[in-house]
Amino acid sequence: MKPLNYDLDLDLEIERYELFADPIYNFTFNRRQFMKVFSGGVALLVPMSNLLAQQEQGESGRGRLDENGPKEIGAWIYIDEKGEIAVYTGKVELGQNIRTSLAQAVAEELRVPFGVIRMVMADTSVTPFDMGTFGSRTTPVMAQQLRKAAAAARETLIALAARQLKVAPADVRILNARFVNANASESLTFREVTGGRSIVKEIPADIAITPVKDWTLAGKSVPKAGGRSFVTGLHWYTSDHKRPGMLLGRVIRPASFNSTLLSADTKAAEAINGVVVVRDGDFIAVAAPDPQTLTRAEKSIAVHWKSPGQPGTAELFELLKRDSSPSRGGGRPVGSISEGMAVADKKLSQTYTVAYIAHAPLEPRAAIAEWADNQLTVWTGTQRPFGVRLELAEAFHIPEESIRVIVPDTGSAYGGKHSGECAIEAARMARSTGKPIKLIWTREEEFTWGYFRPAGVIEVSSGVKNHGTVTAWEFHNYNSGASAIQSKYAFPNQDIQFHNSKSPLRQGSYRGLAATANHFAREVHMDELAQLVGMDPVEFRLRNIQDQRLRAVLEAAAKLFGWSGRVKKPGSGAGIACGFEKGSYIATAAEVSVDPKTKKVKLERIVASFECGAIVNPTHLHNQVEGAIVQAIGGALFEGIDFQNGQILNAKFSKYRVPRFSDVPPIEIVLLDRKDLPSAGAGETPIVGLAPAVSTAIFEATGQRLRALPLVRNLS
Amino acid sequence: MGNITSLNINGKKRPVDVDPQTPLLSVLRDYLSFTGSKYGCGEAQCGACTVLIDDQMTRSCTMPVGKVAGKQITTIEGLEKDGKLHPLQEAFIEADALQCGYCTSGMIMSGVALLKKNPKPSRDEIVKHMDRNICRCGTYLRIVKAIEIASGTAKEVRK
Questions:
Q1: Rounded to whole angstroms, how far apart are CA atoms B4 and A712?
Q2: Is the pTM of this model over 0.90?
């Protein structure tokens, strides 16, 4: 077990927010899990090291691990003696449709129909260890490795079939899930080929996967796996499960963070038939067989807490700067800022801020916990089933192998479900009550007791030539994170730093992480520089771009938007921004109108172009890009956590506004399909371009430059 | 008022025994097994719990069960008839109008309520009617498209 090495690569700072807790690996049970499942047939194993040595084309260098890492299993494909094909992976389905896209990849390589692939996902007792489903890594890493494993399984089976058919392997084809000889006069089923043999292989180093140009199944819009169960209400999320003898739980919360439990009068509650009160230190909770009894019991408990004074939204940005470290990385300086400033015709220094925002997944955290013979089973929606298993092991001082975490396909997370609070609480209650416990957090708890996207302060100082070349770029991010702090612009002199700070609120991962904040500051600043030298914002950016893929998305978005020929209407404005993160490129243009009297901002139109290499599933990709843009509307315009004295002041949907139908303008998306490039993930990056584009559009409409996210609060 | 002892759900009488103040959502999910209706906010803000009461769109999380006794309650589980999906359920699959699917039941029930009173809604009417349903995955444009497909007003379907 080797920890991540934080010192070698400054970009690894990203992982601080991604992982939320220190990553600690335990690979030892993978092989045992595999052997439990395997009973003859063909299995292809994906070594864990193949998944960890992920390089994203060597560009951003994130997540790089020791090359001598453990050679344990990270996933496997299993074709059993009946010819049934199953893929085992620890990844989680949260709406990003990887249950579909991974099966597409495997079916493609095995030359079988999509529908026959069974995906076994995110169950710590059955599926191999996985760090978690985050960082847009499923498509570039897991899918790629499963493709190789499937290709190797296919080659193995073809060799066996060739022997049985008494022909050369090259003369065997897979047609309609059968192995056939050259003139299709003889054929064998998977079962006939595998029957009686037990073959376990690792992926050969030289295995070739199907080139993108030959894809027949991948690259197509296969409908969502299990779609029917979702539209009929039959899909079971965690909260839909029931266990025999199960009690419902509720945690008694203090009104503010960091409170200490002074006293609790639970006599009345405990007198109610079937009610159990659980108290352990500052943890106090109640369980009952039905909701009515639970509510009655909860109301009868009188609790006194002691709460310290705590800062609020008003002091936030001052605190983040005051409590920051000198520097925690961001990259080594390039060139010399002072020399770059010396040759600049104009200089600009500005400060940008972003608020804490909530993930607000529509399914709040939920868990069902059950103990039997010192074995703990927990159903819960999380992006890190193995991380939650570790949290449980630590909380209850039991070995990880005594714990099973099962993740039903989950009601979204956006980076907000890395942690196991709800699972631990349910397990704690289940241990005292001796019965299975279902705990569903209320919306208010989900808004309050999870964690937030980090708030941040970003200071940018720059110098520019009158002809548009940026000569100096100094960038300091306080607290919001380092992802995408580096840009694809060709600035000759750069000093880019991320400063750790002490966050007054609990903070963690979020879709796109700090890439949204860093793009917001960078792209608004670029627009300000363009204005300073009197250049068109697209032309100005192109002047500073050498990266051809970035140029391509920017030009595609500008063209689709009609940027160059646009006519400015009074009361309206347009803005454009571009960027790169996690292996993919985005450019976003937005048009807004601002009511001159009410100052109400309305999004009129959004155009985006996105490029993530070869496209795996066009419809689902389009849906992801569109969804990220819609989610971005909230963070750009009106989402922001208000807090004071350890309390979240807007912890409900009636106070915390998220995007709704009426907020969404027509969105036009152009997907650039680069069949010559490996597929990158796409769930996160499309979120980063909207906020700066809207800020600059509002500037064009009103002359007012907005440098704080959310841009407009209390819109009605 | 005594306990509620029976509800008409999806065309059948179901025995229950609950306090009339209990939210309908809780009765459906905890006392019966209609878990297709989801809890999302408990304050009628997100629409994940939407059911039909005598064909009217209703947020079951804030509706005391005592007020719906004797009325016709339709949940997402009751839309499918003889193994055939409701046209809006079909349209959701066709338009890929979901990601995580947690809002989907409520979206479909809200959409069905709209189509019952207005079989050919305009885009503005759809947006206005659906505006109190939240989809955090951001599939709004696709949901509008699905309702248009089901109502026969869709111009084209993106594949």
A1: 47
A2: yes
